[in-house]
Structure prediction request, 164 residues.
Amino acid sequence: MQPMQRSTAFLPDESATQALGAALARALRPGLVIYLHGDLGAGKTALTRALLHAAGHAGAVKSPTYTLSEPYRIALDGRAVTLIHYDLYRMASPEEFLDAGFREDFDGNNICIVEWPEKGEPVLPPPDVRILLEVSGHGREVELQALSDLGLLCLERLHYPPTP
Ligand SMILES: Nc1ncnc2c1ncn2[C@@H]1O[C@H](COP(=O)(O)OP(=O)(O)OP(=O)(O)O)[C@@H](O)[C@H]1O
Ligand SMILES: [Mg+2]
Prediction:
């Protein structure tokens, strides 16, 4: 799938990752599916945690390594929306995804953020936005890609890097 729009940025430290997470929280739309690509330790969970905290979630955000998915309730423009964070790294087979009922989570209303989407092929529904994180020196390179009209809308609303 060819991106309809792509942008890149350098995240020199964890606070930059947090700022991107906060910007993404403000750009979310119901039904958005985001794939997070990157090696172990690239910052996928750190970005999701920052996004959830900026979206108003006050509690902890753990990596759903063993449960594979973790739901959160957030408010979007005053409306409650479920955001589900997946980490498919330990998924043994596509059947596990189907048997867990994960496909039904992608209902056009829930926001789904997926770490290790590669492990969910070919049963994982397609993304609206892809975020690629890569270790670069002491920081991270990030690439944001819009892959649908909804993804385009999200990235157009995204004000990152923030203008002073
Ligand atoms: N921009 C940044 N520059 C430097 N370090 C960062 C940056 N953003 C996050 N980090 C650090 O990188 C690590 C990222 O860990 P995290 O658990 O988020 O990785 P992950 O991509 O989710 O890995 P996994 O595939 O194991 O789930 C954390 O220690 C975090 O503090
Ligand atoms: Mg992680």
Summary: Residues 8-105+114-157 form a domain with the Rossmann fold fold (CATH 3.40.50.300).
